[in-house]
């Protein structure tokens, strides 16, 4: 009687069973940053974690391709790496994207970093990470800057439920909610 909503019991989010090979990129195993951005190019830094659960040292190829929203390749790099048996390691590479389309509130351009792990000529794992190329800066006395422009954060707090539909919220409810919030001027959300 005193609960704000009833979450029910059981599964109320998407569930995926993931089976990984002995040499793999773990879930959330890539971290993408864009440390340098100009109108001409953006440096994209990709840190990839690899786990080797094999009983021997593994020599492998680590390839990352950056794709734009249309699926066109805009940058790529392949490195030969190795990892001791039973160990995990983090490998960092940097790529340049020419004339990047910046992510912003009005134009949320996204790219995809597709990382492929090849062992003895066979692709054993592939992991894809969506990201936006953008610059964020907070300045004391000046405020927040997105891509060099002063930006006021107009935010709300959203709980995980969908009101009357409860905790098992259909994607259509989220789409409608976000569209209405954006139309009202919201550009920041704190999840709760």
Largest sheet: 4 strands, antiparallel
Coarse morphology: globular
Strand content: over 45%
User: What percentage of residues falls in helices of 4 or more residues?
Assistant: under 10%
Query: Unreliable segments (pLDDT under 50, ≥5 consecutive)?
Result: none
Q: Mean pLDDT, rounded to whole units?
A: 92
Number of strands: 13
> Which structural category fits the helices and strands?
mainly beta
Number of helices: 1
In N-to-C order, the SSE pattern is EEEEEEEEEEEEHE
Distance between the termini: 21 Å
Computed Rg: 21 Å
Descriptive notes:
The chain is mainly β. The chain is 7% helix and 47% strand. It has one helix and 13 strands; from the N terminus they run ββββββββββββαβ. Strands 1, 2, 3 and 6 form a four-stranded antiparallel sheet that branches. A four-stranded antiparallel sheet has the order 5-4-7-8, with no helix packed on it. A three-stranded antiparallel sheet has the order 9-10-11, with no helix packed on it. It is globular and about 55 Å long. The two termini are 21 Å apart. The mean pLDDT is 92.
Condensed summary:
By secondary structure, the chain is mainly β.
Layout of secondary structure:
Layout: E1 23-24, E2 30-37, E3 41-52, E4 58-67, E5 73-83, E6 88-98, E7 111-119, E8 122-131, E9 136-139, E10 143-146, E11 149-150, E12 155-158, H1 171-183, E13 188-191
Parallel strand pairs: 12-13
Antiparallel strand pairs: 1-3, 2-3, 3-6, 4-5, 4-7, 7-8, 9-10, 10-11
